[in-house]
Amino acid sequence: MKLYTYWRSQAAFRVRIALRLKGIETELEPIDILKGDQFSVAYRALNPEMVVPTLIDDDGTPLVQSLAILEYLDETYPEPPLLPRDIRARAHVRALAYTLVADAHPFVVPRVRKYLEQELHVDEPGRIKWMKHWMDEGLRAVEALLARDPRTGRFCYGEQPTIADICLAAHITSALAFPSYDMTPYPTARRIFDSCMKLDAFAQAHPLKQPDAPRAN
Known about the structure:
By secondary structure, this protein is α+β, with helices and mostly antiparallel strands. It folds into two domains: 2-80 and 205-209, Glutaredoxin (3-Layer(aba) Sandwich); 87-200, Glutathione S-transferase Yfyf (Class Pi), Chain A, domain 2 (Up-down Bundle). It is built from nine helices and four strands, in the order E-H-E-H-E-E-H-H-H-H-H-H-H. It has helices at residues 10-22, 41-46, 66-76, 87-101, 110-118, 124-148, 163-176, 187-197, 200-205; strands at residues 2-5, 27-30, 54-56, 62-64. The protein has a four-stranded mixed sheet with strand order 2-1-3-4, covered by helices on one side. Strand 1 (2-5), helix 1 (10-22) and strand 2 form a beta-alpha-beta unit. The two termini are 32 Å apart. The relative contact order is 0.15.
C-alpha cells in the first residue's frame, strides 16, 4: 500500500495510526500542503478534492477521506478491530469520532485558514482564536460524552483503542501544538490521549516522527 500523507495533517495522522495498529506495511509519499503539491495534475487525478490522505490499495484503487479509509481497513483487516461488535456501541464510537472529524476539524484545515486570511482578511491573532474555538468545541462535546458514559474505560470505549481514540489523539495533538493550550477542562479526554500515546502505533505515527516533518537544527 501507499499513503499520500502530510506530517501535520490530522486526517493523515488518523490513517497512519490505523495502519500501524493493523500492522500493515505502507509506503509513505509526502505531499507538502503548504507548497501546494496537492494541486498537481497527477495528485488531482488520485484525489479530486486535493487534500490528504489518499491511500492506494494493493490493486491500485485510490481511497480518500480518512474515516472511510479507517472503516475500509477495519473491514479488510479485521484484527485488531477498530469498532466494537455491539451495534449500539458502534454508533457511540462513530458519534465520538464524527464529533471531532465532521464538526470541529473542517474549520481548522489549511484551506479554511487561507480563506480567512486572504478573502476575509482575518489577522493571525483572529485566526488563532478561530482555531482554538473549534478545537475547544470538539473537545467540550467529546469530554461530556466520555465523562457520562459507563462504557468509557482506558480508552473511549473499553480497554482497546477504536476509531474514536484515533480521532481524539489526532485532535488533541493538533490542539497541543498551540502554546499553552489548556487541557484542564477535558480531564477524561486527556487521560485517554495519554493512554493512546503510550502505544507504539500512536507514538510512531505522531506528526513529529514523520520523514517530512521539519528537523530541529
